[in-house]
Amino acid sequence: MPFQVPRGTADLLPEDTRLWRYVESLIHRLCEKFNYEEIRTPMFEQTELFNRGVGETTDIVEKEMYTFQSRGGDSLTLKPEGTAPVVRSYVENKMYGDPNQPVKLYYVSPMFRYERPQAGRQRQFHQFGVEAIGSHDPAIDAEVISLAWSFFKELELSGLSLEINSVGCPTCRPLHREKLIQYLTPHKEELCKDCKSRLERNPLRILDCKVDRCREIVQHAPTITEYLCGECDSHFEQVKSYLDELGIPYLVNPRLVRGLDYYTRTSFEIMDESIGAKSTVCGGGRYNGLVKEIGGPDQPGIGFGLGLERLMLALKGKGIELPYPKGIDFYVIALGEAPARMRVKILQMLRAAGFRAETDYMERKMKAQLKAADRLGARYALILGDEELNQGIVQVKNLDNGEQQEVMIDHLIENCKELTKKNWEM
Ligand code: ATP
Ligand code: MG
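A: This is the predicted complex of the input protein with adenosine-5'-triphosphate.
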């Protein structure tokens, strides 16, 4: 084979894009209902944005970024996640000054991370994400979680679990950090290389390590939940009570920490065990320190990132068929030169009226054209020969039951509408 897609990337072929478009349109409709507006940021940003916004001690910054030097000498990075770019844009465009607060944004975008490819883990993947910036209200935490939850619900994906936690704030974290270091230090030699260096730099990150031995060790580590300050504790209680109000089931997982440094307070993940080891489909939380870190005012935020490849795996794993339209409405068969000229007009009329219509461009015989129509899932064939043309009619053949009738070309569209309407009513 001369060329292949780069490792960790995939083509989305027509059979995939149909499904993807259906999911994307659901995203747009859902976000509209929740009053989130779409934002599109560039595919790459200054590398420094991610160093600061994601954090020097994260997997992303330590080993996963696609960083390159532009011809002008700037260091640029393909976006590995969506929050830092959205916050950069929020600050750059002074959205904190907008009278509509909080600022509620969403995106659907490719992301790039240099990872070891496996099912549900690619080097180019896609995320649907939302960010609500400017409010401390625990009700917005619940709204963000409920948006993700509604999304899965509308897709009829069941069997998902929601885990939540609070990771505290700069007031309560130092004490926990101290306790954590005390606990981990005797195990230092057993930790992986990354975690050894994280022990001093950012021990909280060790709780999120994927290495088996590290995971075992942290099983018994002191949890942040035991050290929450009064305000964080009360915030967490309110988020939970809002979720109860909404009837969204959750599990408190005191060991849940997000892999990104700027997270504060609410942290959550939505998992689907059916997709295997990489079961987290959606992860998010509060990032009260981020806007300031990126050079903006001290504004709080909360959001999530939801992996669309993993979502597709979950849909597939559960055998969920989405109701996107399959097949075309009309296949136009023209036999002879004059009819062949007429068919382009018929196609034009059908399409202008909103029908999905196709014809033959391969000089196939009549029988082969009917077969082609069948392959495309056409509901009707419109057949036009010299004789029909002379009489100003077309034969309309129902490809489900073989019934055929003549229709005046002058009234073709009305008749087609009538026919397809009847078919829908059945
Ligand atoms: P993981 O623990 O699986 O590495 P993460 O903590 O790095 O995930 P986030 O940065 O929170 O993930 O991204 C949010 C979501 O994006 C994940 O829950 C997942 O669904 C998806 N995602 C992350 N990395 C990848 C990837 N390399 N390929 C496909 N999807 C991904
Ligand atoms: Mg990761």
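DSSP finds 15 helices and 16 strands in the chain. The pocket of adenosine-5'-triphosphate (ligand 1) is lined by residues 81, 113, 115, 120-122, 125, 127, 259, 278, 280-283, 305, 307, 309-310 (CB under 6 Å).
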